[in-house]
């Protein structure tokens, strides 16, 4: 078996993003198991607000981003918690994608919050992935109180760092898992067809 490709899509645009720092650690752990890895930083993509009447090829870098996701064996989605959900840059990126990018693909979830556990962010991302027929890794990483979780770009809490690293390792471990049958949610997701 060839080494799997694991990409991480960072939903934070902040320069000193703790979401990005955490995703980088997960990718390091995936690379340690032999995976080819890449961080897809949404600051580097021009993605206009999603308009279903606009072709993806006419929407800035949307087609390029979708192609990078399509080629991945596993995708890590990371987002800060905004208003109890995930960040709008990630929402826009996901709206430009569909079954071609996510169906039968292994997806890992990571969420970061300035306060309490970002549980709803993870739940919302899991619902989106289910509607795209992705296979979501049961292990997920939640980082509460992000301002205290890192110091000089490094994890302060080793057990939290290990949880994030485990997400990267699971992405490699399950990159080629045989997916479950389609979900009810995906059957209703007509908008994800023909992206």
UniProtKB/TrEMBL annotation:
Its cofactor is [4Fe-4S] cluster. InterPro entries: Flavoprotein-like_sf, FMN_Rdtase-like_dom, NAD(P)H-dep_reductase. Residues 5-147 form the NADPH-dependent FMN reductase-like domain. GO terms for cellular component: cytosol. It comes from the Archaea. GO terms for molecular function: FMN binding; oxidoreductase activity. Belongs to the SsuE family. Isf subfamily. This is FMN reductase. It comes from Natrarchaeobaculum aegyptiacum.
